[in-house]
Automatic annotation (TrEMBL):
Organism: Poecilia reticulata
SUPFAM superfamilies listed in its UniProt record: SH3-domain, UBA-like
Protein name: Ubiquitin associated and SH3 domain containing Ba
InterPro entries tied to this protein: His_PPase_superfam, SH3-like_dom_sf, SH3_domain, UBA-like_sf
Gene3D superfamilies: DNA helicase RuvA subunit, C-terminal domain (1.10.8.10), Phosphoglycerate mutase-like (3.40.50.1240), SH3 Domains (2.30.30.40)
Domain SH3: 198-263
Alphabetical keyword list: SH3 domain
SMART domains hit by this protein: SH3
GO cellular component terms attached to this protein's record: cytoplasm; nucleus
Length: 384
């Protein structure tokens, strides 16, 4: 459960079955944990744009290994059986500090010949360090772990260890960021497999590969491979030696079947709680009801309309009628209505969610059950 972030039992079972031959499966190796603040909203959009453009124009630098963040504590280890208590410590700390950290955080752009980042204003940085110290205290009390709060200047690293010739381009991109843009910050607890903490290269599998020899590693698309330069002495040209995150097995693999990935792509999220000065809306995402194409197949349109575009109800589970479309009945292929049973499902969902705001994903689905939509819509509603 810990290795999958406590998602669900099915995810844990899938992980266990894929690691049946993992030589380290029975070793009690704790994972390494870290607490970050992650931005969201408009500021995150700008930082993500900077990440992509800087990588595209100047190539990858050390900052690209991890998503935009502010480090609140150093990496620490926690026993698997204590992880639930550790996440509870984070929730307790965030609840204690609710409303005490003003948003957005005051940030200042700093640029040198080898580093670009956004630094938190000193007074606010001390507030965040106090928050981190409280988390450390809670973590020690609840999970019996030692957490060392970050003592250096708090900042978001944007670029470092880059070629000096790239500085003008990176500086221009950095100065285009509006540091006062709206942003809520999430306190995020993440973990990584301690076995791969010191591996210098992380790869992602692009194509599946079936081993041809006993010393080769099976590759599954999307899996991650950890590679240490020290282990490459056994590999011939065009081949690499690595260890699979998905199975824990090691072996040789063809170099052209993988691509470089970022270190944090393999990390697991164990808890994320927002620091926000604005009230939050809760969003429930649910399937409103059974669709025509799910029940009658993707070619249902050809079965339900005549040569002139007239609707034919050939099954009692089909709607009694359908409104005309500006582009003709073929428009229904891209925007499918719900069935009679689907309307009943939607009505039940609507009755349960009546007190919440209602968002409709498709205009025809909305048209096909206006009475049900009314049930789901309070005096004020939000339309997408």
């Amino acid at each position: 459960m810990v290795s999958t972030g406590g998602k669900n039992v099915q995810a844990a079972c899938d992980w266990l079955f894929s690691h049946l031959d993992d030589p380290f499966l029975d070793d009690h190796l704790p994972r390494e944990y870290v607490l970050y603040l992650r931005p969201s909203g408009p500021l995150l959009q700008q930082l993500t744009h900077f990440w992509k453009q800087s990588r595209l124009t100047c190539g990858k630098n050390k900052a690209h290994n991890i998503f935009p963040h502010i480090t609140l504590c150093q990496f620490f280890m926690c026993a698997d059986e204590k992880v639930e208590a550790l996440t509870d410590a984070l929730q307790t700390t965030v609840a204690k500090w609710k409303g005490r950290i003003p948003m957005p955080l005051p940030l200042e752009l700093y640029i040198s010949s080898s580093f670009i980042g956004l630094f938190v204003e000193e007074q606010m940085a001390e507030v965040l360090k106090s928050f981190a110290a409280d988390f450390a205290t809670e973590a020690t009390s609840k999970a019996d772990v030692h957490v060392e709060p970050h003592k250096k200047q708090l900042h978001v690293t944007m670029a470092y260890h880059f070629n000096a010739s790239h500085l003008p381009v990176l500086e221009k991109l950095a100065k285009s960021i509006e540091v006062t843009a709206g942003c809520d910050w999430l306190a995020v607890l993440l973990s990584r497999d301690i076995r791969f903490a010191n591996h210098e290269v992380t790869l992602q599998v692009m194509y599946p590969y079936v081993p041809q020899n006993d010393d080769e590693l099976e590759l599954l698309q999307g899996d991650f491979i950890f590679m240490s330069p020290v282990e490459q002495s056994t590999a011939s040209e065009g081949w690499l030696y690595g260890t699979s995150l998905g199975t824990g097995l090691s072996g040789l693999l063809p170099e052209n079947y993988v691509s470089r990935a970022d270190e944090s792509d393999t990390w697991v999220v164990h808890g994320a709680t927002a620091h926000s000065s604005s009230p939050k809306m809760r969003l429930f995402v649910c399937r409103h009801g059974e669709r025509m194409d799910v029940v009658f197949g993707k070619h249902w349109v050809t079965q339900c309309f005549d040569s002139k575009g007239g609707y034919i109800r050939s099954n009692l589970n089909m709607p009694c009628s359908l409104p005309s479309r500006s582009g003709g009945h073929r428009d229904y292929e891209k925007d499918c209505p719900i069935t009679v049973f689907g309307s009943t499902q939607a009505r039940l969902v609507g009755l349960f969610k009546k007190k919440f705001y209602y968002c409709c994903s498709g205009p025809i689905n909305f048209i096909s059950f206006p009475s049900t939509a009314t049930l789901m819509t309070p005096s004020e509603h939000l339309a997408l």
